[in-house]
């Protein structure tokens, strides 16, 4: 049986530009939370914002 990694299964039949755009959007969200935390927003507040926005 041939083993495939998770990423290759996700990319099967999907254009690389769509994958790059999705990964960039995901990283931008993480960077935003990190920047807010560095500015001094408490983690419980960030968690509350995360819950309000949804878990996309």
How many strand segments?
0
Number of helical regions: 3
The class by helix and strand makeup works out as mainly alpha
Shape: elongated
Descriptive key words:
single chain; 56 residues; mainly alpha; 3 helices; 0% strand
Provide a brief overview of the structure.
The protein has 56 residues and is an all-alpha fold.
Task: Kindly describe this structure.
By secondary structure, the chain is mainly alpha-helical. The protein has a domain at 17-53. It is 73% helix and 0% strand. The chain starts with 5 loop residues before the first helix and ends with a helix. The mean pLDDT is 75.
Helix/strand layout:
Elements: H1 6-11, H2 16-39, H3 43-53
